[in-house]
Design brief:
The protein has about 110 residues and is α+β, with helices and mostly antiparallel strands. The chain has helices at about 5-30, 35-40, 65-70, and strands spanning about 45-50, 55-60, 80-85. The protein has one domain (about 5-105). The longest helix is centred in the N-terminal third of the chain and has 25 residues, at about 5-30.
């Protein structure tokens, strides 16, 4: 990543530090290394099926180990299925509860 203006360089550094702080907070809450947490989160996928002008989005099953991580991070699991018309994305869901200090962009549906 190349930035030339001081404002962009500063913003990039702040974002990197914020990401490291979020990783460390997740490690502390889950009592696991970040590599293990990231591996578990990577298993969560959303699959879009399209047929006859309709689209259904289905997520993969959440194993117990991932469910425990989500609970420790105060992140609600995405719904099993989302429906909608083809070509129109369902509204994304972000956990906005105050106790959810860590928001994971990997779990945004849509």
């Amino acid at each position: 990543m190349f930035h030339w203006s001081p404002r962009r360089i500063e913003a990039h550094i702040k974002l990197c530090i914020l990401a490291l702080q979020m990783q460390r907070a997740a490690e502390i809450r889950c009592a696991q290394p970040w590599a293990r947490i990231a591996h578990e989160l990577a298993a969560l996928k959303a699959i879009r099926y399209r047929a006859q002008g309709r689209a259904i989005v289905q997520r993969t099953k959440i194993p117990k180990s991932l469910g425990k991580i989500l609970k420790n991070l105060s992140i609600s699991a995405p719904e099993d299925h989302l429906g909608g018309r083809a070509g129109r994305r369902p509204r994304p869901h972000i956990d906005t509860r105050p106790e959810s200090a860590l928001r994971n962009p990997l779990l945004i549906r849509g």
